[in-house]
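QA checklist item 7 of 12: single-chain prediction sanity check.
[x] sequence parsed
[x] length recorded as 257
[x] structure emitted
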Amino acid sequence: MPLIAETPFNVPSAIGGSVALWRTQNKFFNKANEYKGMKLLAQWVNAGYHIQSRKKPITSVGDLAGFKIRSASGPLRHALSNLGAVAVTIPVPKSFELISQGTVDGMLNSGSIVAAFKYARYIKHVTEFPGKLGANSFSYIMNKKTWDGLPAEDKKAIESVSGEHMIRRLGAAYDRSERYGGILIKKAKGKIQRADAAFVKAVRAKTRFIEDDWVKKASARGIAAQAALDYFRKTGKEVTAKARANAKKNKGKKWKK
């Protein structure tokens, strides 16, 4: 179920996507019993993917023809192939090596990865999409028997710092790192642009199968999949808008918890 985060155009921010995933889990996904034998304490997502290019700007599907791009495995790899790109599925820790040596033409990564692996100077162009081109999800779990054996006061203490409290902090941290990655790229004379409406429309058409496949699989497990997807999307936008309003109110120093 958490692979809902991989559907393109649905994660406007890490804090928005993280809170949306947690709330969608509790509202729709718990009935699937995906975490049987475990105590789910938190779920969150990263800041989502942009197209990062070593040399040329990527402003249309045509620009992706033959473009060698590092990607995670899974549906996004197939989506990139649909767009004409050559997906190279190599783990994130290899990012610096790949881009610095010119093994790939670009990366499908977040700005936080740019900051973490220090390759900003090799990125000349970034193309951003509304809601990103998917995101990774993470879960914080504990063995259910271990959880059940804890004293009530220990459970209360753990729950006070997990759940949405933890999720908001993690999401905000990812978003700060995402912004910092963008700052590093600009300092290195790289350019960041948003995909125009025509490009977004074309990419939506080529990646729609990811969303359709998720809905089909979730429905097969007894989930009201389309309602869950709509709720995930709506919640992510609402939480993001509120977080950004708080950031603006507080001069962008820190998003409120």
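[x] summary fact logged: The beta strands are 38-45, 50-53, 68-70, 86-88, 106-109, 125-128, 137-143, 191-194.
[ ] second reviewer sign-off
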